[in-house]
Design goal:
36% helix, globular, binds nicotinamide-adenine-dinucleotide, 14% strand, 7 strands, alpha/beta, Rossmann fold
Length: 275
């Protein structure tokens, strides 16, 4: 099978949630493609049980340039500061709004504060990233690209997923509305919709690690077990994916090869959405 070597040299890419999982692999791939990468995450070092080495070191080892800016994406001011920081490198060309958390509970057990927390990170964070990048690109009069991390949950409901699916549905619509509004300014907005990817997902936010335990966690015996083994048969390809199988989609959507792709949700899900 062939591989694609993208060239993002002279471009500055911000990846939110670039310390682990999908975001880390995306940051790494942009770095390998020559971009200056800014990892905007709440934590610089991966957790001990993470699958990865620190993002920026890996990028530097690959010959790229990387910077870490501690950022809580639920705070629009902090997101604005990251975009501002990118000016030091010529300004943001590609904004990847990827940071997100996973929570599940049966609807009747869903806590309103937890609901707000998921929305603050997964929805307000993506809104803030789109808005800050768009404002900056418009101010500078440059073209650019925004790629959000949606999910199969953007369009497909799952038991116990009120919070998460609602948040990812919103990401899909933010992507579409932003694409409409920015199209005439040559700023394209798209989203990658990953399926079930092997990451430390669910444990990404240090504030909630303790309470979350081991990630894909469901206490309610009536709900399906989402912790890996039982979920794989539900995927047409019969397996989860690794983050490196998803990362290329983020480079494609921001590349010139995708110059007429706009407002699109690109599924990378082993065929899950067919079902
Ligand atoms: P992950 O937990 O490995 O990575 C998430 C990263 O986001 C972590 O580095 C974490 O520190 C960071 N983060 C969390 N809250 C943050 C905040 N408030 N501000 C800044 N950074 C924050 O998880 P992942 O699986 O790589 O998830 C990345 C994205 O992919 C998420 O948006 C998630 O919803 C989405 N996604 C994941 C899967 C999957 O199966 N893993 C499937 C579909 C979509």
């Amino acid at each position: 099978m062939g591989t694609v070597n993208y060239d993002f040299s002279d471009e500055t890419v911000i990846v939110t949630g670039g310390t682990s999982g999908i975001g880390r692999e995306v940051a790494l791939r942009y770095g390998e493609a020559g971009a200056t990468v800014i990892n905007a995450d709440m934590r610089e070092e991966p957790k001990e049980d993470d699958l990865s080495a620190p993002t920026h070191k890996a990028i530097e080892d690959a010959g790229g340039e990387a910077t870490y800016v501690e950022t809580d994406v639920s705070d629009p001011e902090q997101v604005g500061s990251v975009v501002e920081a990118a000016r030091e490198f010529g300004g943001v060309d590609v904004m990847v709004n990827n940071a997100g958390i996973y929570r599940d509970a049966a609807l009747t057990e869903t806590d309103a504060d937890e609901f707000d927390q998921v929305m603050a990170i997964n929805v307000r964070g993506v809104f803030a990233g789109c808005r800050a990048a768009a404002r900056d690109m418009l101010d500078r009069g440059v073209e650019g690209s925004i790629v959000n991390t949606a999910s199969i949950s953007s369009e497909y409901a799952q038991l116990g997923h009120t919070m998460y699916d609602a948040s990812k549905g919103a990401v899909m619509m933010i992507t579409r509305v932003a694409a409409l509004e920015l199209a005439r300014h040559d700023i394209r907005v798209n989203a990658v919709a990953p399926g079930i990817i092997r990451t430390t997902f669910g444990q990404g936010n240090p504030d909630v690690d303790e309470e979350l335990g081991d990630g894909f966690l469901l206490d309610d015996a009536d709900l399906p077990d989402l912790r890996g083994q039982d979920i794989e048969p539900t995927v047409p390809m019969g397996r989860m994916a690794t983050p490196d199988e998803v990362a290329g989609a983020y480079l494609f959507l921001a590349s010139d090869d995708a110059s007429y792709v706009n407002g699109h949700l690109l599924y990378v899900d082993g065929g899950y959405q067919i079902l």
